[in-house]
From TrEMBL:
An annotated GO BP: DNA recombination
UniProt cross-references to PANTHER family, sorted A to Z: COMF OPERON PROTEIN 1 (PTHR30580:SF1), PRIMOSOMAL PROTEIN N (PTHR30580)
Protein name per the record: Primosomal protein N
Top-level taxonomic group: Bacteria
GO molecular function: 3'-5' DNA helicase activity; ATP binding; DNA binding
Boundaries of every Primosomal protein N' 3' DNA-binding domain copy: 5-105
UniProt entry keywords in alphabetical sequence: ATP-binding, DNA-binding, Nucleotide-binding
Amino acid sequence: MYCFVILDNKSRFLDQSFTYHVPEKFENKIQKGMRVIVPFGKGNKNTIAFVYDLVENLTTEFKTKDILEIVDSKALVDEELIDLAFYMNRRYLSPLRSCVRQILPPGKIDKIKEYYYPSKNLKKDDEFYEVFKNKITKKKILNKYNIDEDLLNQYKKNGLIKTSFDINSNQKINYTYIFNLKKDYDDKKLPSNAKKQKEILDYLKYHKDVEYKELLKNTKSSKNSLDSLIEKDLLEIKKLK
């Protein structure tokens, strides 16, 4: 599957459609009207893009990059509004990016943080296991440890590490966060004095799809305890609009 996107970039030279491959893990989730994170340019800069169309196959073969992440839990706009954006582009010769922004909720995404964490394939005797054993930002990896972009990409390609994204947005979209235990969670990652974190894990063993406020209330826990478990990559989080 492939998606056609408009980049959220002010440059008039980039005011056009771009094509990206949709990895299999996203095929049942991606929809027209969603935003995604894509690698753009020679440096593969993480860039927000708006999906306006999807196809199973391309009519001509050319090299495409994979999308990295889906930003939204469901489409922000329907096909009628997407058509309206393209109509405004044709009728008034307005930049595509500007037309797309007109149909989206107000606000913008300010910053994207990329995190890395170990997959099951990363062994404890690996040279860099200690670096990746807890969720860590790409910026910190490159600045603090003897790891460069090439090595990082090699670890990703070999399936030794996985990525996740934290998106800082001032858009007024209300989300509900649902928590579950990860299937392969390991509570040995918890220090012996982390009683509240253990209580949260114990609660989630017997309760599924627990909403954020409900989880904190029923376990009488703080946001800090929950954040610590998220950093240790012990929880699955679903974001619902």
